[in-house]
Amino acid sequence: MVAHTAISTxxxxxxxxxxxxxxxxxxxxxxxxxxLLIGIYPHSFSSSLNPPSGxxxxxxxxxKRQGLLSTGKHCSGSIPxxxxxxxIMVNDExxxxxxxxxxxxxxxxxxxIVETNMTFSGVPKPLHFATNRRRFEQFSHKIIHxxxxxxxxxxxxxYDEVWRVGMWLNEMWNRNKxxxxxxxxxxxxxxxxxxxxxxxxxxxxxxxKALAHPDRSTxxxxxxxxxxxxxxxxxxxxxxxxxxxxxxxxxDHAWNGPVAFxxxxxxxxxxLKKGPVAKRNTERLQWLMEEEWVGTGNRLRNExxxxxxxxxxxxxxxxxxxxxxxxxxRKMDSWSHQEFNLEKYRDRxxxxxxxxxxxxxxxxxxxTYTYIPNNTDVPTYILQHQDTYSFMCKRYGxxxxxxxxxxxxxxxxxxx
Length: 416
Prior knowledge:
One of its GO terms (cellular component) is membrane. It contains 15 helices and eleven strands. The protein is α/β, with parallel strands linked by helices.
């Protein structure tokens, strides 16, 4: 089997009926306004990860004790296996993509790799994955390559004038349209899991394995079983250990990371179930397959701050863990937080000093780090290739802060 490249061609993909938009806006205006406003700023800085009262919550120690980090073998009382599909948007972070594919290849069934020819800040860019596709040839039979077309004028008006998303327009469009194209081009089966995350939010392979091979004799297995009284619904929130620059610098708060949700067809019998969990499940997921609803991907992303069952420490989030300083500057040019793209923060001496001392690059008082030398709680692939990924392991005190394009003997001189 070979990898596929998908692009939207269906008529409804390019035309959003005004009537439908008005109906959706009216129906959701009160119940989801706050939720949508969160979506305007998808990278929330909230440090609170305490789930709401009554939300299913899994302690990491309990998960290990119950044997929920599955071997992948069927057990007595096992639930039918589900496939797990990974949805990620890619800019130029090919090192991070390489690590993710190696780390999760054996436990993921499909990788939806989504890209477009424009950055989140609206700057034209190459299709980096398409250009470098041969580098990833060994993973090709599990890859579905999704190219998101530019936002058409009628949708631009909806996003910019109706929802007023401002600088987040491109990111929201790419996630919403990308998910729609991905699902249409390689349709999941009823009950499959889709992981919706940013590229630098890396789920633990052991957790993905537990999703794919649930066991009813465990608490998690019963929570995943729609016929169990303990069913937690079809949406899970993964908490991440949150690192910055490298796996040496652990932030003092966790990170609301990926959302895992089950794919359901519009006529799924699951939506006929009764009870508070079933009601929440229907409200969250039934609109997934509504063809003309434009906000599915972003609303699912926002569920990381919702009331779905919470799985702590089931992913690593290594933010701004770049191999070279050129990528740092490109990131500042391209990301949605353009309020931080200031000359002060782009100065090389500033970047080097902050990265080698573990200090927030944007002077955010709520972001404080703990230095962890020789950290071993990192993705397995990085542990096995520490020489290759030294910039993810050893920045502290280095004259070049671990950036491979900065000469350690002349940090402010010409780039290598």
